[in-house]
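Consider this pair:
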Amino acid sequence: MHSLRGGLFPLACFLLADCTATPAAGDSPDAAKPAAVGGAQHTSTHDWTRFGWDVNRSSASTDATGITAANVGTMQRQQVTLDGTVDSSPIYLHGVRINGREHDTFFMTTTYGKTIAIDAGDGTVLWRYTPPGYSAWAGTRQITTATPVADPNRSFIYAASPDGHIQKLAVADGRAMWSTSITNLPGREKIASSLNYDHGRVIAVTGGYIGDAPPYQGHVAVLDAASGKLAHVWNSLCSDTSTLLQPGACTESGSAIWGRAGAVIDPRTGDIFVATGNGLWNGRNNWGDAAIVLDSSATRIIDNYTPVNTEELNRRDADIGSTSPAILGGGYFIQGGKDGSIRLLQLGRTRGATPRRGGEVQIVPTPSGTDLFTAPVVWHPGSATLIFAADNGGTGAWTFSNARLTLAWKNRTGGTSPVIAGGLLYVYDLGGGLHVYVPTTGKEVATLAAGRGHWNSPIVVDGRIALPEGNANQRSQTGILDIWRLQ
């Protein structure tokens, strides 16, 4: 393991303690409720409203958790049986009113589109929403792996289903307030990536299914959160068409938007960052295998990038769209890919749609030099910037300073999308086990027992860790949610 060189930034606060700054109806609740775990019910104070914690998907919570290097290994696990696999991450709202009582609540969507509310204190299922038509695709290849997103008013969440719809669900009881389709090809275009929300808009993206069977196109869909109206569409292929493409209307196929983070949003400008998969790139109206920055309405390209060898990457299925862009600040962002590289790029807002091939500031290898399918963490402790990423063969950390990425440490333990919370780094090994590290040094302080998974990643909030298990590709209609709690 490589160690972080001392003197780069203050470390004492982060080594051993938590010290961070501070109109379909849902189904009725289960009749059978498990016994309470971890003592009396209590209402907590923080939220985790979306994949990646914030609108720019930093995956670095600034909230205190109560979990430290000293007590994380003593946490008690409850395994909650679900009627579906959650191949994504949950979200969390504290103290929301459901069925007439206040609950700290986890919300999650199964691969076949059931959205479930679970009491964080005892694992009780509070409600579930089952989309119309569920029986038509349950058990088939038609799935979603999207994490829902909460409305800032904490009264609604937005969730995807395999029929290509986004639903607005009432937190109080799971009722659907509206349901809007974001694709004309739900059997070909998958909502794989997590949903995002910004200034009254829900942002969703589409990709394809395993095998890349045509026709399909990746696109960004912007919905009005109040009404459900589809306000804007940006197509990564045939981008000169600004509505949902009809089957056969575009001669090109592919260019999925499928990174775990989906649409990443710059909180300063509202700009939307996405990356596309295999597909034609011509720098005009076809933007396969590219990183694209759109304005906040998804109507205009602000900046763009594709590797110099984009045609080669396309041919050998080594596209950069396997992960979403990650915003570092100061006009820089990073873009991973299936070629084992992480590219440091500088945003050029004046470029617009003028095509950019190459021009990377720096290229570094992923932790094990293999495909990057995960969302990196971007952490700002004090004045420093650190990046953490995991691939199938390792986990690594870099410092970012003076427009350079410098390796801080790495190991040979792979993982899914990592998160930082309470000054600790959490990385789920898809082969089983949740690893907990001191982020500045890479020292492992605990490994929590967990089963195998796929895209699943944890959230850590209010003295609890929640992590779903399971793999969407196994087409199971059952699953497990692990909840660890401080005692």
